[in-house]
Design brief:
InterPro entries: Homeodomain-like_sf (IPR009057), InsJ-like_HTH (IPR055247), IS150/IS1296_orfA-like (IPR052057), Transposase_8 (IPR002514), WH-like_DNA-bd_sf (IPR036388). By secondary structure, the chain is an all-alpha fold. It has 8 helices and no strands. Helix 1 crosses helix 3. The N and C termini lie far apart (51 Å).
Length: 170
């Protein structure tokens, strides 16, 4: 699956929320399944501007258990609960639930040592073929979306700062 910057995710969500385009239409333009767009929209609805700021936490077994209990008692979907608890990848919660279903609470406490070994991305990129015209066009569109998002974000920050200055001067 492609990696998308927080700016692109935000721009896609704004396109959906501003109306005039469906999940499927956006998904086709961006090149993902429409369920991914739905997930991004849920994340944004729960966490607004913080939704796409990357988080890399380590989740305790207690936290994992709370999420699973929430899913079961409140009848939430895995994706909805992931968005609500701001877990960056809903497949992580799916793995927690699967482990819990198989082995109970003990299965949620993985105590493996170390991190998986990282691959050398520079070495991989040297073996890559040049990008096709279509890939370059797609990348160009994504970059334009990112720039548009940054411009909107700058305008929002300036507007927010202007309000604060006015409120402070009263």
């Amino acid at each position: 699956m492609k990696k998308f910057t927080p700016f692109i995710k935000h721009d896609v969500v704004q396109r959906y929320l501003n109306g005039g385009t469906s999940y499927r239409e956006l998904a086709g333009r961006v090149g993902v399944d429409d369920s991914v767009i739905r997930y991004w929209v849920k994340l944004y609805k729960y966490h607004e501007e913080q939704a796409f700021i990357p988080v890399y936490p380590s989740y305790s077994p207690d936290f994992k258990m709370r999420v699973i209990q929430f899913i079961e008692t409140m009848n939430y979907s895995i994706r909805e609960a992931s968005a609500l608890f701001r877990i960056p990848d809903y497949s992580m919660v799916a793995r927690w639930k699967k482990n819990w279903d198989k082995g109970g609470a003990e299965a949620l406490d993985w105590s493996g040592k170390g991190q998986p070994e990282m691959t050398n991305k520079n070495h991989e990129s040297q073996n890559e073929q040049p990008k096709s015209y279509e890939e370059l066009q797609e990348e160009n569109e994504l970059l334009h979306m990112e720039i548009a998002y940054l411009k909107k974000l700058r305008a929002l920050v300036q507007k927010h700062n202007t309000r604060n200055i006015r409120n402070d001067s009263k």
